């Protein structure tokens, strides 16, 4: 190893109590240490981290296994390499010249999820079987280093792996710090919307009133409203021949039951997803602590396995409230995915439409379509492969105005329809088509194919084309967001902690009670919980990190990633 290479410290262990640290210093010196108690590990990591340079990384099998205990002990780390997450990327990346050895590492492959799942933007939350044996951890790290070194673009892959691993650290820190949550505000909002909190087994007063209204409209005082088959039977008896109880289908019927039923369903969704039971379980101590799953979606987007962080209702956002003496710095990116598409395709015309303005307004100003709403419909249709309705009518105008951007997603769709693989900007690749998809295409191409096979095969091919069309854009947007998060995390850590005697955010835990920290992330939005005196410095860091992320991924390509950035006591959207 050259002196310019990063120093690595590998953490592995047997039976969760005999832990081995194997370090490689920047001069190539091999260091080894055995820790017999988990509480001792935090002390050792603290010492090594304090003396490490900016190139040092911790290597472990799964950040979610090792990092939470360190955070609880008041120890954070600057950088890591998460073998589980990186294995999932490298074994499938089209940039890797030969992934045979990675795919043969069966325990890691099982932990990475199933490449042959249905073609959708699905969740891959499966950590079962991640190896813990030091020899296997070291061997997997060596396999990953070799794969990156021999790849067709090592620099892109290194950036992707670093961003993915940083995301794992951030996910653990978000859970540890929590999102400031005011239970009294939440309770008041629920009462205003749902009515008086019920006793055990009952419904809130306003929900019960809607239920009574629905039953009166159905002419059935005992109608079951929460069982779809029973509710459909009641609707049919009342003259509403709906095939499902989705709000889209119900809205097609003109009947007195429809309005109160839709209102009832909306209220019960809030009660079930974020009602008083949710408040007690997920925000009992003034903090909402969801369980984030980095890389939990096939495109690289995050998922959530608990708490519903990715479906935070707008009406409850006022309950997200900073501690006394602290503020929230809230920022989200305007039209992230279309801007990413412009950068990936190097489409200067689309980038120009986005420069300094709302991208959709820029498209209108360019004379491509008449209204902002039509611009939005056209762009989303282009990225998601809509071919009918308003999208189908408007997308041709985009092809004329922005041929490079449209060619990128059209080419991705064609590759998908043919059963091929597409990749994001940094090298995360889409899963191959499922065995069922391939069998369907094979049957359709057979000279003796039965009637209907050809139609089904074409439909399946189009579905896969829509998947790959969006995969390249959504996946690259996720990479930009990770780069934004990782750079911002570093900038926040460099800010000074507040002094003793100042108001600390004690519920944020030992590490984050006295310093600005990330508290929430949702695809293209972040919330930082910061001491009020540092609000402007944090806002500047958020903006600077967005610019740095654009430079890291897209170099000097002239494209803005504007932020809707505000400093406030709560996260309510205006």
Structure class = alpha+beta
Mean pLDDT: 90
Strand content: 5-15%
Helix content: 40-55%
Roughly how many Å is the radius of gyration? 26 Å
Number of strands: 13
Please give the count of helices: 23
Count of structural domains: 4
Q: Largest sheet, described in full?
A: 5 strands, mixed
For the termini, the CA-CA separation is: 54 Å
Low-confidence stretches: 113-127
Shape: globular
User: What spatial order of strands do you see in the largest sheet?
Assistant: 3-2-1-4-5
Describe the structure.
By secondary structure, the chain is an alpha+beta fold. The longest helix is centred in the last third of the chain and has 42 residues, at 453-494. Residues 113-127 have low confidence and may be disordered. It folds into four domains: 8-177; 183-279, Taq DNA Polymerase, Chain T, domain 4 (Up-down Bundle), CATH 1.20.1060.10; 291-335 and 478-568, Alpha-Beta Plaits, CATH 3.30.70.370; 337-470, DNA polymerase, domain 1. The protein has 23 helices and 13 strands. Helix 3 packs antiparallel against helix 7 and helix 17 (372-384) packs across helix 18 (389-401). 50% of the residues lie in helices and 11% in strands. The chain has a five-stranded mixed sheet, with helices on both faces. Strands 11-12-10-13 form a four-stranded antiparallel sheet. It has helices at residues 38-51, 63-72, 83-90, 100-104, 106-111, 134-149, 154-177, 183-194, 205-218, 228-237, 247-250, 258-274, 276-282, 336-345, 348-354, 359-365, 372-384, 389-401, 403-417, 435-445, 453-494, 509-512, 535-554; strands spanning 8-14, 18-24, 30-35, 57-60, 80-82, 179-180, 287-288, 291-293, 303-306, 326-333, 517-522, 525-531, 563-568. It starts with 7 loop residues before the first strand and ends in a 6-residue tail after the last strand.
């Amino acid at each position: 190893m050259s002196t310019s290479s990063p120093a690595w410290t590998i953490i592995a262990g047997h039976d969760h109590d005999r832990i081995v640290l194997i370090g490689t210093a920047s001069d190539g010196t091999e260091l080894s240490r055995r820790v017999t108690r988990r509480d001792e590990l935090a002390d050792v990591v603290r010492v090594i981290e304090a003396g490490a340079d900016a190139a040092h990384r911790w290597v472990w099998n799964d950040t979610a296994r090792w990092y939470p205990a360190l955070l609880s002990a008041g120890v954070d780390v600057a950088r890591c390499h998460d073998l589980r997450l990186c294995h999932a990327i490298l074994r499938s990346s089209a940039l890797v010249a030969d992934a045979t050895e990675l795919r043969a590492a069966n325990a890691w492959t099982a932990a990475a999820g199933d490449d042959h799942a249905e073609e959708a933007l699905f969740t891959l939350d499966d950590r079962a079987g991640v190896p813990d044996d030091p020899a296997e951890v070291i061997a997997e790290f060596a396999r990953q280093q070799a794969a990156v070194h021999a790849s067709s673009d090592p620099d892109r892959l290194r950036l992707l792996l670093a961003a993915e691993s940083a995301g794992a650290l951030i996910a653990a820190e978000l859970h540890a710090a929590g999102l400031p949550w005011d239970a009294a505000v939440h309770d008041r909002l629920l009462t205003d919307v749902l009515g008086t909190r019920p006793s055990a087994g009952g419904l809130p007063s306003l929900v019960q009133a809607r239920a009574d209204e629905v039953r009166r409209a159905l002419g059935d005082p005992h109608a079951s409203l929460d069982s779809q088959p029973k509710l459909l039977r009641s609707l049919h008896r009342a003259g509403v021949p709906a095939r499902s109880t989705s709000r889209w289908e119900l809205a097609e019927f003109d009947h007195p039951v429809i309005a109160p039923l839709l209102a009832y369903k909306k209220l019960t969704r809030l009660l079930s997803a974020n009602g008083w039971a949710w408040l007690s379980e997920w925000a009992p101590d003034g903090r909402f602590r969801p369980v984030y799953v980095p890389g939990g979606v096939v495109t690289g987007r995050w998922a959530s396995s608990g708490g519903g962080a990715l479906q935070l209702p707008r009406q409850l956002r006022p309950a997200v409230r900073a501690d006394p003496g602290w503020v929230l710095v809230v920022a989200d990116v305007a039209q992230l995915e279309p801007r990413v598409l412009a950068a990936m395709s190097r489409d200067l015309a689309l980038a120009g439409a986005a420069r300094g303005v709302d991208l959709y307004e820029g498209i209108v100003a360019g004379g491509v379509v008449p209204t902002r709403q039509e611009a939005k419909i056209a762009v989303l249709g282009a990225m998601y492969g809509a071919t009918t309705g308003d999208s189908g009518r408007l997308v041709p105008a985009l092809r004329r105005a922005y041929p490079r951007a449209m060619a990128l997603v059209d080419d991705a769709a064609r590759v998908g329809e043919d059963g091929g693989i597409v990749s994001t900007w940094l090298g995360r690749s889409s899963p191959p088509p499922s065995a069922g998809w391939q069998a369907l295409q094979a049957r359709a191409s057979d000279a003796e194919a039965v009637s209907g096979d050809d139609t089904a095969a074409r439909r399946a091919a189009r579905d896969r084309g829509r998947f790959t069309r969006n995969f390249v854009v959504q996946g690259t947007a996720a990479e930009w967001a990770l780069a934004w998060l990782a750079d911002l995390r570093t900038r926040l850590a460099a800010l000074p902690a507040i002094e003793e005697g100042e108001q600390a955010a004690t519920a944020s835990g030992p590490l984050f009670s006295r310093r600005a920290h990330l508290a929430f992330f949702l695809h293209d939005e972040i919330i930082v919980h910061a001491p009020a005196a540092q609000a402007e410095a944090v806002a500047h860091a958020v903006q600077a990190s967005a610019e740095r992320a654009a430079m890291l991924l897209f170099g000097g390509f002239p494209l803005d990633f504007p932020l809707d950035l505000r400093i406030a006591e709560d996260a309510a959207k205006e």
